[in-house]
Structures are given as structure tokens and as C-alpha cells.
Write a structure and sequence with these properties.
The protein is α/β, with parallel strands linked by helices. 35% of the residues lie in helices and 26% in strands. Strands 6-7-8-3-9-10 form a 6-stranded mixed beta sheet, with helices on both faces. A hairpin with a 2-residue loop joins strand 4 and strand 5. The longest helix has 17 residues.
Length: 252
């Protein structure tokens, strides 16, 4: 589904250049759940921004379903994001003036879909994420965990190819985090959702099937979970973080 090919990203001017990404390459297969980890400044958010077309690479290429995102005209980017990419952020990014139902269906409405079809799709996705009972409420009337599940529903309701999650559990307590991660896992396993999640948290990363570790803008290591239990995988993640140097608490 996704191919990242030797991408580089530079910031600054000639006299002060920062290399945020240094020849990063990896593939994401359809239906994978991948976590990206690294300390602050490692390049993980820059990587997510480049994949999401929020930022442009300085060199290399990123292909989604065989299409180079660098070739997408600027006038088509907004529609491309709505139809192909789903976004989940730490701070939810829901619109307080819209109900939860209206927030979830916003991309469908912007694409001028039939209102009855929008309602059907929103109801189906809300059912999968166990938030049918809050559809008529406004974001300020529901909990943080419910807001984040609404954000996931919004990110996937239009049948987007790829879910990009940037620290999705960062603003949640431990119970809400566990609930969200279990739901994302079910979406991945039963609905075939392809998920790319940036996280500082080893516990969150242990829910993924593969973890990429970034250090100084390069891929430092990679772990595949395979058939191992999540508890074993969690401790293996901690071992890699320790091998990367510095205090493990800086990245979890």
C-alpha cells in the first residue's frame, strides 16, 4: 500500500541546515498496524507529515497505492487527503459547533454524498467504535476517550486507505488509552484497517505488529511481533529503546 523510498527532509537556509530525515525507506503492506517510535527530534513527526502531504520531502519519493504523492497537484491535495488518508491527533481536532455525528460525517458531506448514505455510514462506523449513544452530543459533552474514538470514526468513515495516528493516546488516561488501542486493534484485524501510528509510549507501540525506531532521522531498528504475546513484545521494545541510548523515560 505505502512505499517510502530513500526520503530526505531538510529545514533551514544555506548557513543553518537541519537534516530531519536521512534516507528513510520502508514499505507498509495492506492491513498492517505499524508503530513509529523515537525520542523528540528523531524525525518521526516529520515523517508522518511527509506521508500525510502536510510537508514535502526534499529528496526521495513516497507512493500510496503506486501513486507518487509528490505528483499530486496542490489543487487536488485536499480531496486526496479526505478520500485516501485518515488522521487522528493527540488533541482530537473535533469541531465544537458540530455534533459528534456531524463531525464524523464531515468528509462525506464535503464530498456531497447523499445525506441518507452519510447517516448510514456514520452509524455503522459509530457502532464499530461503540459510540452510537453519543452521536447527538457535542464534543464538550463527552469524555476524552469518546472524543478520540469519534476522531478515529471520522478518519475511517469514508473508506480511507491509510489511518495516520499522531500520539493518539497522549491526552488520555490509562483506561481510555487501553480502550482506544483495543478498538484500533479490532479495526485492524477485523476490518483490515491499515494503521501507521507515531507514539512515545512503549505500551501503545506493543499493540502494533511492527515497530520502526527512528534516531537522528534514520531507522535505527525494527521489531516484528509475530506470534509473540503483547507483554513479551512490550519488553523487547523497551530493550531496543535502551539500546538507542539515553534515558528510556525520554521516549515512553
Amino acid at each position: 500500500m505505502l512505499r517510502v523510498k530513500n526520503i530526505e527532509k531538510y529545514y533551514g537556509s544555506k548557513n543553518n541546515v537541519t537534516k530531519a530525515l536521512d534516507r528513510v525507506s520502508f514499505d507498509v503492506a495492506d492491513g498492517e498496524f505499524i508503530a513509529i517510535m523515537g525520542a523528540s527530534g528523531s524525525g518521526k513527526t516529520t515523517l508522518l507529515n511527509c506521508i500525510s502531504t502536510i510537508d514535502r520531502v526534499s529528496a526521495g519519493d513516497i507512493l500510496l497505492d503506486g501513486e507518487s504523492i509528490a505528483d499530486i497537484p496542490s489543487g487536488r491535495l485536499a480531496r486526496f487527503r479526505r478520500e485516501r488518508l485518515g488522521f487522528v491527533f493527540q488533541d482530537f481536532n473535533l469541531l465544537d459547533t458540530l455534533t459528534v455525528e456531524e463531525n464524523i460525517g464531515l468528509a462525506l458531506a464535503l464530498n456531497h454524498e447523499d445525506p441518507e448514505e452519510v447517516s448510514r455510514k456514520v452509524g455503522e462506523m459509530a457502532g464499530r467504535l461503540e459510540i452510537e449513544d453519543i452521536l447527538g452530543k457535542f464534543p464538550y459533552q463527552v469524555s476524552g476517550g469518546q472524543k478520540q474514538r469519534a476522531a478515529v470514526a471520522r478518519a475511517m468513515v469514508a473508506g480511507q486507505s491509510l489511518l495516520l495516528a499522531d500520539e493518539p493516546t497522549g491526552a488520555l488516561d490509562s483506561r481510555a488509552s487501553k480502550n482506544l488501542l483495543e478498538i484500533m486493534t479490532r479495526m485492524n484485524q477485523s476490518a483490515g484497517a491499515t494503521i501507521l501510528m507515531v507514539t512515545h509510549d512503549a505500551y501503545s507501540a506493543s499493540y502494533a505488529g511492527r515497530v520502526l525506531f527512528l534516531k537522528d532521522g534514520r531507522i535505527f531498528n525494527e521489531l516484528l511481533r509475530g506470534d509473540r504475546g503483547r507483554g513479551i513484545f512490550y519488553h523487547e521494545i523497551l530493550d531496543v529503546l535502551a539500546a538507542m541510548g539515553g534515558d528510556v523515560s525520554d521516549v515512553i
